[in-house]
Amino acid sequence: MNILYDERIDGVLPAVDKQQLLQALQRQLPDLDILHRPEELRPYECDGLSAYRTTPMLVALPRHVEEVQTLLRLCHARRVPVVARGAGTGLSGGALPLEKGVLLVMARFNQILDIDHSARLARVQPGVRNLAISQAAAPHGLYYAPDPSSQIACSIGGNVAENAGGVHCLKYGLTVHNLLKVEILTVEGEPMTLGSDTLDSPGFDLLALFTGSEGMLGVITEVTVKLLPRPQVAKVLLAAFDSVEKAGRAVADIIAAGIIPGGLEMMDNLAIRAAEDFIHAGYPVDAQAILLCELDGVEADVHADCERVSEVLTLAGATEVRQAKDEAERVRFWAGRKNAFPAVGRLSPDYYCMDGTIPRRELPGVLRSIKELSEQYGLRVANVFHAGDGNMHPLILFDANQSGELERAEALGGKILELCVKVGGSITGEHGVGREKINQMCAQFNSDELTFFHAIKAAFDASGLLNPGKNIPTLHRCAEFGAMHIHAGQLPFPNLERF
Amino acid sequence: MNILYDERIDGVLPAVDKQQLLQALQRQLPDLDILHRPEELRPYECDGLSAYRTTPMLVALPRHVEEVQTLLRLCHARRVPVVARGAGTGLSGGALPLEKGVLLVMARFNQILDIDHSARLARVQPGVRNLAISQAAAPHGLYYAPDPSSQIACSIGGNVAENAGGVHCLKYGLTVHNLLKVEILTVEGEPMTLGSDTLDSPGFDLLALFTGSEGMLGVITEVTVKLLPRPQVAKVLLAAFDSVEKAGRAVADIIAAGIIPGGLEMMDNLAIRAAEDFIHAGYPVDAQAILLCELDGVEADVHADCERVSEVLTLAGATEVRQAKDEAERVRFWAGRKNAFPAVGRLSPDYYCMDGTIPRRELPGVLRSIKELSEQYGLRVANVFHAGDGNMHPLILFDANQSGELERAEALGGKILELCVKVGGSITGEHGVGREKINQMCAQFNSDELTFFHAIKAAFDASGLLNPGKNIPTLHRCAEFGAMHIHAGQLPFPNLERF
Q: Which of A112, A115, B121, B436 is the least buried, fewest Cβ under 10 Å from its Cβ?
């Protein structure tokens, strides 16, 4: 079975006459905004992972579900692939367009349809921004928990497609844990409801299956999310360490002590210095690592937990433990963390952000190995990540204008992901597979497992027209990948030239 | 597509020579315990839903994964269906055997393989009892949260297969929310790992898809669950009401007030009286309804929440609000609730336990409708349920020896489930679909949706040999069901004679 298109789809797809398709769409959907001129298409050539770029054939910007439905039917009939996207902030190239495909931009579906405070749910269109849901729920004392760093811009439909995470996922779970229901259109434009407004749904759990499927199983037209009561108070502790290994062990100790922080984040020296230079958060610039530990809940509870966490941190060898003395300092501590990526970006012309997950107990060892790999490849790596979840985000610094540096960065990134798999982890925590990590899926899964994925894809989309070339590699690709790995003795990481 | 066997499978399956199969199994697996004599098979003729009974052809009791693998391969080659079960405590007939099938009893896989307190996980064999996990984790201050009423007996493999719930699911989620990884064997005996020890897995979420799939997608050989820190304290409030509607509204009010109780349970007058006669829990026997609300966490937090919940209950019209004065009284309050089913069983020769879920806001209206239906059908209904989740368990009292009462009980039960679907709920909360509610699946899902379920089943098990006739109805069955529904003007609920 090999029903998924490869990313080389543009090469093997039958030539679609762009003008014919455009005219058919304009005829059937006279009110639909369609972009087709090169200068209009250019802004849509990539998502948040700018290393991969392809100019789409056409960009459609519908406002009504009926338009999406008609478009899907027309494309299905003409065998034209469709890539849906929301705000396009994804970091794995999951919404990367195709030269011979239509990019379906759902950003105009931006209405909050219902906030039901007694049922604690919000029913929204897919283009609604993540943060807008919490803002709309705030008058009821409620909020939507998953908080990707891009939450001011990213859309909930994209969050569902990538099973997005964030700082608070340690305590409150990923997108999949905070969803009740999604309305979708299948590749043939048929509407379907996955999940329900209640506790459980009978039959197979199609909602969970759909979440994180990266636009390959259907197009989201409505999302119902759970809302949570806003915690009364939140306090943050900052702990400094003279080695990353000690900080890594402290993370495991906090969790083992029976405490579930709202967030538990780690930054290494390179990231600390970069953030401090940029934001002036008050970080100790000589520390080899810092931990930021947020505790949220009711006053007394948070107070007691702060004391316990301080003790654990001290026992784990922290050279300093500070509690943000007021809300302004708390916000400043987090501002440093939340701006760490752009801060590190100031140190280097380019950086490559990885996303892998490991069991927490492996943190000290993996951090040590990353340091060794960094020296071996001659590239600096900054570590800024969701330590409590074991969700690492190594940032590899390089200069694409220096010959060979891009290739070295890719090779180093691949090594780090392989290391994650080797210690029992996985190649993604919250960014998804997308285009970026499709080769590493061959390391994570064997061909039997991939065959299952393909069969599930076929159950929803036998035509293979929805977002081909992402998330699930073809067996053929993995065979090639494996062969390259074995014979050439080099690491065959994504060839950035192709897209 | 119609690849699933119907429950009439025994009628349409090719005749399997029991002796030949037995000899082949004995030859290939000389150490495997196989039961084949009628008197040995009889104890396995039903699960916890005793209304459905079928004597299996053979019962296999393996101890090693290799035995399960060989058995599956042999059965697959000979086209013999296999029904796996754990402790057989399920309430929907999900593990009901087949006359021409092998019942694969996984109860001997009862080893706890690992308790990792720093990673907060337990790796166990599928036959380990639910409560045994919490007992093993207790020395580390941890426990496994989902707590079905049968937790002393039910096995974790069965919990995964049915996505089991319990009193504490309001706060801590269903089985699917507390799982990290399962090891399975496919219908062809191939091992597969679903999920991982870390936060997220790339690709489609096969773990969630598998959870609640009722043994139709594979046989579970190992389960890794999340463990939670045991709450410092737990307090319980008992509130009495002079109407079930008021109690129903109070439930919605508590949730809307931003409080997440550990458990929030409701009993109506019939259940209160039955439980009080049986357990002497100290319940107010004149109340039309009581709520039991447990608050757990750290001392100060629980104290504050108890005060807030008391206020909400009083405002909602509670005639009395009592806090259990000590641990002995708290345990007594819960003993009444946990023994409510057998207590109600003392009032009537037979009872039929339903399991449906509705949005919380619909509780008062649905409780009123159940009362009206009860009068209309001339059968008493006791309500004992997870009110916080909107997970209803109406118990319909009847006497199977009185002509027509069983049929009336079934018809009334069907009406109640249809009512759940009508108000936006679903036909199961935590018991699963199994054999019992397979017809109601036709009311819950349309043929497009069922076709997806069939395609997913086919992706895992194209042979259809794993637990045929449960969970997902054939389109043919639904067509018949619909036709009966329309033409005969009567409710075609499960014909209990067949199994």
A: A112
